[in-house]
Q: What sequence folds into this?
């Protein structure tokens, strides 16, 4: 499926738009993350600003690479034309996820919202890498459907940052909740929503079963 599939086109448009916005927002518009750091008022430990910013740049770069390589590999036409390309690109995706995770591990203790937030980020770190490795293990055993399911689950979490900011916007700007509380709730809501979205895509788009 997916070659000229409207849902693939929609996903690709969303991914490309998000990559462009992420690069613009974090490297051009607000390279010092001033707006985001403004909310870090009650941190338990002082934030080493220069190091934190450099880690964030690496985080954003590999997040964009994960979004791009993942989007390309969901193209069935590309898979048919070049198995080798799909495989190499798949490993680029795996390495990118590992580096987003590694940088996330550094940033998590300084997360806005304190321990409640950092626990969720650290949990997601291990689950996200676990899902991505599961996808690779399945395809090495030639289980294509299971590989596809785990990749859908893994790729959904490329939209973590978007979902956190969308939920925070609704709760903070829309409902007037305190920013830090909105951000904490949004991390958990984003994780739950992305899990559900992945299962929806697996069942309704790919029409694959639960396992
Ligand atoms: C793949 C798409 C992702 C993008 C584009 C992205 C982007 C960003 C950006 C721009 C920031 C700086 C703060 C902000 O403006 O939000 C950030 C912070 C952070 N990200 Fe990601 N991220 C992604 C995925 C993830 C994932 C999957 C995790 C966890 C496994 C994660 C963990 C973190 C953590 C812990 C922080 C610091 C949060 C804080 O200080 O409160 N990110 N991310």
A:
């Amino acid at each position: 499926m997916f070659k000229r599939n409207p849902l693939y086109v929609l996903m690709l448009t969303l991914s490309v738009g998000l990559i462009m916005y992420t690069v613009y927002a974090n490297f051009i518009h607000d390279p010092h993350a001033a707006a985001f750091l403004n909310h870090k008022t009650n941190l338990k430990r002082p934030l080493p600003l220069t190091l934190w910013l450099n880690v964030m740049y690496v985080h954003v770069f590999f997040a964009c690479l994960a979004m791009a390589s993942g989007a390309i590999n969901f193209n069935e036409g590309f898979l048919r034309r070049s198995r080798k390309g799909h495989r190499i690109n798949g490993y680029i995706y795996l390495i990118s996820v590992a580096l987003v995770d590694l940088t996330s591990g550094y940033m998590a203790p300084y997360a806005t919202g304190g321990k409640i937030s950092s626990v969720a980020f650290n949990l997601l770190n291990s689950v996200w890498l676990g899902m991505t490795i599961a996808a690779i293990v399945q395809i090495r055993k030639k289980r294509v459907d299971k590989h596809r399911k785990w990749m859908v689950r893994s790729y959904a979490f490329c939209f973590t940052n978007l979902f956190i900011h969308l939920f925070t916007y609704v709760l903070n700007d829309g409902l007037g909740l305190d920013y830090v509380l909105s951000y904490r709730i949004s991390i958990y809501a984003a994780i739950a929503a992305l899990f559900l979205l992945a299962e929806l895509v697996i069942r309704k788009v790919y029409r694959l079963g639960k396992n």
